[in-house]
Amino acid sequence: AAAAAAAAAADPAGVGAALPDMRCPSAACSAPLYGRLAAGADGGEAAIETLAGGAKPPPIVRPVELTLVPDAVATVEEASAALRKAVHCCVLLANQSELLPNTFVLRSSLLVHLLCSVLPAPLPLTHPRRRQACFWASATVRYETQAEILRCLRLLLAHFGATTLSLTATRSFDAARLLSLASLASIADAVLRMRVSDHPSAFCQHYAGDADGPVLPFGFEMGPFGVEAEYLRFHCPERTARLTQVLDYFQGIKSTVAQDHMVFRWERDPGFGEGDARLLSQVCLQMGFPMDEGELPMYMSGESRELGDNYPEMLAMRDVVFMFKVLMTPTSDSLPELRRWRPRDAALSWRFKPGEGFQTMGFSRRLAVTPWKEGDAGDKGTGWRSALGGGFLASLFGSGDKRPRCPPSGGNPSNLAGKRVDTEEDVLHLAKLPTFDGLLRPSESELLLTYLTAPYLRIPLALRLFADPQRVRALGHRDIQGVLDACFFEPGPWQPPGSIAVPVEIPAPSRAHMATPAGLLLHELSHAPAPLVYAAEEILALSLELDTGRHDAPGSAGLLYAVRLMTRMHSFIRFLLTESGWGDEVDAEGGADAATMVAAGAAAAGVGGGGAGGPLSP
């Protein structure tokens, strides 16, 4: 009572009456379980440590020696060994994807290098010296070597599909992905046609047309790859040359194989085609397999195992061609989602349903080849538009497609203007022109778009446009860089071997006569190198004048891009001179200027004369 009276006297207003009783109870201070934490309790510290269990053993990191894969092969046996070593490295990287960094990038880079650089490209079936000069056709091997090469190609296909569909597709990476698959398909076709010394496969003999009896060779079509190739961006000349070799090989198949002997034509019909039935019927007739109409497609799908178990090369070729054609879809909605895929996810499972055709499962979803037919190459057969450039395949899905397979091409003026632009008149009718954040005036932007409507002339015109003290600053803009990269490194329409139909009227009904056999840049350097070389030197000199010595200066991005562009152009010049027999003179001091050497090298190779409009010699 006395304490309460004293508290009331100290707090006459009663402010502290609402505060709780802060006195701690005596039971809270006793800590009855605290003794269990003492070192001497319950057996001591050693007994307590045993409750944690044993330490988890560290993971075993297996070394991956990527240098096992050679940089070049001289014989088919060395090629087979290189494929086995690549499979070995890919398996180690795939199984240690959680332990090693960048395993997906390492595998994709290794396989692109193997398929596009290490393994030689086969010569076309129509080449006059194919049996003597072709790396694959000139060799005679045992069946075990042929089967081993096809087995390794099928295993590497699973690794390549799993890695490339796990990475974000840029324009250059998408180009490398498609070229690698096209090269893989051409090599697999050439291996099927190899001469076998001991006991050749009946399937390979009928496929190559070498079996006894009145038989003809079989083959497959490249589908829209010839149109897709127009917008594939390659920053090195070796990939551009490999693209030409692959296109030549597919053209040779088209010229040699009859239409009713074409197999795997899923871009036209997902069902069992006439060529497929002919090929399997011939094999079954020779070997005595059942030939019922309902049984033949089951052999192709693998549901009837007899043919596939005896001739696994048929299944390997089927999967290679299917993946090659699936990845040419114009929209990423038709491709598997972006995730960390494993090689077993890329294994294809086939079923055949009468009336519906083949149903292929892979990457935890159904895969299908995008329909395509000959002639879907742009307006009036010009061949200048593709799915990557905003043309033929994209139109099948409408103009509202928001998820293209890869970023659109900067060389298409429609992508820059936001509207359909095909001719110079379309540019003049544009209400709003891109100014690239004010780096170009509307008149300069109009001039650039006009150049892009003439792809055959765009390289020297676009380069000369930026060889100006004011406009050279625009090279630091990413969109401008994309435009110049597209102008330089996208090869444009491909000219098949043979004669060129010269137009008889002006303007010509199409631009088919303006196609090039090895890409626009190599063609321009072969016939008119001086404008390119002089404009490139001027751009580099103007960019160096803007250098302030700091990496974060406003002009640094443009300077770095100018250096990168000129370095890549130099690699194309050196490639052209080396192929012309002038490789030893490229870096010689005190020699002639670059333009003179390129012109002389082109003349030595037999591609000179006629100026920029002259056709390349065969």
Strand order of the largest sheet: 3-4-5
The Cα radius of gyration reads 33 Å
The amount of beta strand, in percent, is under 5%
Overall geometry = globular
The overall pLDDT, averaged over residues, is 84
Strand count, sense and barrel status of the largest sheet are: 3 strands, antiparallel
Helix content: 40-55%
Assembly type: single chain
Structural class: mainly alpha
Low-pLDDT residue spans:
377-388, 390-401, 605-618
Question: How would you sum up this structure, described in words?
Answer:
The protein is mainly alpha-helical and 618 residues long. The chain has 24 helices and five strands. The chain has helices at residues 2-10, 44-50, 76-95, 103-118, 130-133, 143-164, 171-192, 202-208, 225-228, 237-256, 274-287, 296-301, 305-310, 312-326, 392-396, 413-417, 424-428, 442-452, 458-465, 478-489, 520-527, 529-545, 556-579, 594-604, and strands at 140-141, 195-196, 349-353, 357-362, 365-367. The strands form two sheets. Strands 3-4-5 form a three-stranded antiparallel β-sheet. A two-stranded parallel ribbon has the order 1-2. β3 (349-353) and β4 (357-362) form a beta hairpin. α6 (143-164) packs antiparallel against α7 and α7 (171-192) packs antiparallel against α14 (312-326). The radius of gyration is 33 Å and the shape is globular.
